[in-house]
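P.,

For your records, the input lines for the assembly:
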Amino acid sequence: MEEILEITLRSIIVSLSAILLSATWSIPITLFLSRQKTRIANIIMSFFNSLVGIPTVIVGLFLYMILSSSGPLGFLRILYTPHAIIIGQSLLITPWIVSLSYEVFVKARNTYWELALALGADYFSANMVMLRETLPDLLVILLIAFSRAVGELGVALLVGGNIRGYTRVLTTTIALAVSRGEFEFALALGAMLVFVLFMIALTIRLIKAYKE
Amino acid sequence: MIAKKYAIPLIVVILATAIVCVFIFLPKRETIRVSTTTSLYATGLLDVLADWFKAKHPEVDIHFIAVGSGAALELAAKGDVDMVFVHAPSLEYEYIQQRVLVEGVIIAYNNFTITGPMEDPAEIQGLDPITAFKRIYSACEEGKTIFVSRGDNSGTHTRELLLWKLAGLNPQGKKWYIETGTGMTETLLTTNEMRAYTLSDMGTYLKLKREGRLPNIESLVSSGRELINIYSVYLVNHTMFPHTKYNLAKEFAQFVSSEEGQELIGQFGVDVFGEPLFYPALDRRDELRQIWEWFAEISLEGSTTIRHMNYTMNMKILQIYAEKTLVL
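Structure tokens returned:
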């Protein structure tokens, strides 16, 4: 039981770090793209849209090839560490955050952003106003990204290695339980995963309701 | 102004999270990375061995990465692990030739088992493995039954292919030859559902059978030289991959093959299953090495990668392997 709690906690910390890390580049990218009306911006957005459904195993394998000792970033020696999972998951959810927040930003541009500019704000401040006004929507988007990150298996298995007490997260524990034939235990862990997601979803909904 | 009010706390939060998670997850001790075949890991044996080793060396952590034998060896070839536990002599042999694996030692053995439906439509019960495979083939051709294969380049899958080869048959592409591409547990459950035949390692079969998950199938053939399942441990070549932790890995390998480690292996699972899941290799090392060499040898015939080498050359490498085994 203690081990399950530890694994659940690790899952949450890893995926939370991943969405924060991903947000640091995904949101600026989307802010930039949502201002462009060029064909290239459209092509880039289509590219992100198409990556939304990419199999997690492919992302994991890609990252494994890069982080392996024989790969280009092998000297970092972060393969089979939680850091590798964090990086993998943050890459995995980038297309989700970009695709989902794009629409939100495009809408907000016509209202808050232009209003802020009209009131004499510079571009940076106008962006910040927009971010603040769309924060409830962004939180929901980050939650969806979190669900994707915490529920993915491919990355955690390939670059994490499912090492007991170090990189074992909920999904890899479930996979291990299935391979051991412990189906009831796997289902219990699945319920745990859903419970974690439910609690976070509930919290975000409550915050949103409170703000409005 | 609003911008500054929000930007600074935001940056602080992100940086703090980044720093916290870097530190939370930094390994506190020296670690050895071990890639291992799933059958050894899933039974829990390796955790028992690691716990005993850690009791003596509290400064060391052992990280197991459990994958199929094929993948475990590939991780070693890329220098991503320090040592490997595997049970696929013919695959091991290829990596020994590439000089990726050094100082191999046989640590344990048990049997593979040919499992099939209770009714045994191919009538293989009590036969030798090769005849059994021939009978299964003809029964399948007659449409009486089907055969389920792992199809995942694992140790068990490698052995199954070897058995087909020894029987002089090729089931690839037949309608009755089903490749699941999954682990042993899933494959056994599939076999049970389909009332088919499959090759399994004894440990996984016993565990599932005792849990009552395999009501339709049972172990039909489990004796014979061809079914001996040999587990070996290897260190990754330190000169090829200087970052590997050769000395620590060697200590762990020595512990596993020491009398104490061997006793742990022999006793593992006795309290739950009433019989050991693995037999220690210590007393029978010479005999097992001969069998290992025999497996490596028969896998050479017709192999494209090694075809250009002549037989005596191969035998020389096998002798080098034999000498290496004695080092530990």
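Two observations worth noting. Chain A has one domain: 2-211. The interface with chain B takes residues 13-14, 16-17, 20-21, 23-24, 68-70, 74, 77, 79-83, 86, 124-125, 127-129, 131-132, 161-164, 166, 176, 178-181 of chain A (CB under 8 Å).

Regards
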